[in-house]
Design goal:
Chain B: Keywords: Membrane, Transmembrane, Transmembrane helix. Chain A: InterPro entries: AAA+_ATPase, ABC_transporter-like_ATP-bd, ABC_transporter-like_CS, P-loop_NTPase. Chain A: It holds the Pfam family ABC_tran. The complex is a heterodimer of chains A (245) and B (422). Chain A has 8 helices and 9 strands. A 6-stranded mixed β-sheet of chain A has the order 5-6-7-3-8-9, sandwiched between helices. Chain B has 422 residues and is mainly alpha-helical. In chain B, strands 3-4-5-6 form a 4-stranded mixed β-sheet. The model of chain B has no long low-confidence stretch (mean pLDDT 86). Classes of the chains: A alpha/beta (245), B mainly alpha (422). At the A-B interface, β5, α2 and α4 of A face loops of B.
Chain lengths: 245, 422
Amino acid sequence: MVEVRLDSVSFRYGRKQVLRDVTWCIVPGVTGLLGENGAGKSTLMSILVGMRRPRSGHVSLGGSSETPRVGFVPQRFTTPGEMRLVDTISYAAWLNGVDRRATAPAAQRALEAVDLGDRSHERVRTLSGGQRQRLGVAAGLAHDPDVLVLDEPTVGLDPSQRLRVREVLAALGGKRTVLLSTHVLDDVQFLCHRVGVLAGGTIAFDGTVDELTSALARPEHPGGGLESALERGYRTFMDTLGDDR
Amino acid sequence: MSPRRLFWPLHPLYVLAPAAAVLLVALVGTGQMWSWPYLHWSLTDAQWHQQFRLAGPMAAAAATLWATRLNRSSHVWVQPYARRLGGAVIARHLGILTAWYVGAYAVGMLPLTVLTALAGPPGGPDLQVIASGLVAIAAATAVGYAVGTVTGSTVAVPLVAVGAYLLDAVAVYGANAAAPYVPQLSYEPLLGESEPLTLALFRTVFFLTVATACAGTAAAFLRWNARGRRAPARHAAIVAGCLMPAVIVGVIPAFAAAPATYVADPAPQRSCLTQRGIEYCVHSGHAARLDQLVAAFDPVLDRYGTKPAAFTKIWDQGLLPSHPMGGPTTNGTLIAPLKADGSVDTLSSGLTATLLGFHSCPATGPHEDTFAVYRGLETYLRTGRSTGAFANMNERRVKQWIHNHRAQLEGCTLTDKDLPST
C-alpha cells in the first residue's frame, strides 16, 4: 500500500499562483479532492502524476512497493475508435510495463472490473459516453497500479452510468491509493474514506467525509431541505473560508 | 504465436494494405523489365532504389497514419508514468512498420533480381546498393512516423505522401549533388557503369542516420507529450545527439563535392569487327549483340553509299558511358545505346544527323530552302524509301546525289541550287 505525499508544493501559471506550499498526505483508500472551479484540482493532479513539475516542493510516492505503479485517468481523453476494447487496454497495460504475453489477461480483468468484459472484442466507437469513461478507468488500472488518480471520472455521466463507475471505484479503493477529483459531492459521500478541499491554493481541509459533513455543517444554514448533509457541510466550510479563498 | 501479434495493437489493415500497395508498385514498376533480354546487374541493382519513387511515399504516408492513430497526445495511454512510452514504443511500432514495408518492397524487387540472375550477365548483385534502397524505405517509414507523432493530425498523411514524392524532382534536378541524399538517382546506369561503393555506403549510412534521428525525435516527442510538453534538458540532449550525426554525415559533405552518380569501368573488355570501313565495338557484356549493332547501323551506311568523314567507329555506349551522344566524339566515334530491352537506339546516336552534316550547321539549322532535301534524305537513310525531293529517284541516283554533294552536306553549305528538282 502506497502513500502519496506532497511537501510544500507550489505552482503558478505566469503570475497567477495556483498552489501555495501544499503539504498533504494521501493515504491508501479512496480520497476525494474537492474544490471550486479554477481552484487548481487538475493542476494538483497533473503534478501528482508528473505531467507538471512544481515550482517548489516535491511529490513522493512511498510505501511497501519499491517503484510504485501509477495509473491516471484524465478528465478528457481519446482512444482510436477502430480499436477493439481488449487491444486498447492491452496496449495501455503494455505501455505501463506489463509483459506482452500478460497484457491480454490483464486487459480482460480490467474490462471485467469496469463491467465491460463481455464487450472486449467490440470496437471502441460502439461505446456510449459512460462506457468510454469506464474504458478510461480500465486503461488506468490494467497494469494493477498502486496509485490510481482520476480527474472528474463521473463528469457528464447519467445517473446509472455514474452509479456503475462509483461501484467500480469503490471496489478499487480496498487495495490501492485512489485519488479522485470531483464536483459531485455524492461521489465523495458514497466513495471516499477521506476528503481534501483545495481552496486558496492550499489544502484547506483534510479529514474524513463524516468530519466534513457533521463537524462543519450547521443545520440552520439556508438550504431549504434541498441539500444533502455533505453538501451543506461543504458549503458551510467554503463560507467559513470567506475572502481567504 | 497469434497472427495479431504481427500487427498489434492496430487493426491488421493498417499494415497489410500499405504493405500490399508497396509490393504492388514494386512489382508493377519493374514488371516491364521482366521480359527484357539484356538485363545487367547495375540496372537491376539500381531498381532497388529507383522504385522508391512510389513505394517510399506510400510507406511514409502509412507510417504517418499509424503514428497519428496511436501517438496522439490526448490518448488515454499517453501518460508520464508509462514505462514504455518512448524508445520501447518506437522500437515496437517502427519494428512492425519497417518489417512489413521493407519486406514487401524486397519481395516486390525479387522477381527482377531472380530473372537477372537467371539471364546470367557477368558479375553479381551489389549488396551495398541493394541495402541502400532498403534502408531508404526504412528511412521514409521513420520520417513519416516522426511527422505523424509530432503533428498528431491525419492532415499530415497526404502532405507526407506528396513531400516524399517530390523527392523524385529533387533527384532529377539535383543530379549528382542530390545523389548522396535522395533515394532515387537522376538516371539509371548503363552496362559498364556502376554505383561507386563510397556513394552507396554513404547513402546507406545517411538514410540510416535519418531513420535513427527520426525515431529518436519521435521517442522524445512522445515523452514530452506525456509530460505536458515539458522538455527536460536530458531529452533535448538525446534529440540533439541523434540529429547531430545526421547533420555531420549528411550536410557537411554537400559543401565539399558532388560525387559521381555512377563510375565507368576504366578498361572495359570489348568485342569488335570492321565492316564497310567502320569499326563496330561492344562491351564484353554485350558480346552477343555485336551483330545486332552492325545490323542496326550498316544499312544506313549502305544507303549513304560512301565512307563518312565524321566518324570511323561506332561503339556501344557501355564502352564510353560518360560521353555525350548525338554526334561523333573528338576521335571520330559514334556512340550507340544498346538498350537492355533489346533495342538499339540509332536515333540517339545521331547517325543520320551526322551523315547529313547537321553538326556543321549554325544553331538555327540549315538554310530554310533546303529543309525538303534534308527531310527526304533523312527518310531515305532511315528507311530506304525515296520521298519528297527524292521521290522520283531510285537508290542508285540518290547515292550518286549524296556522293556529288558530300562536301556541301558536311559543311552545311547546301543551297536551293543543289536541290535535286532544280
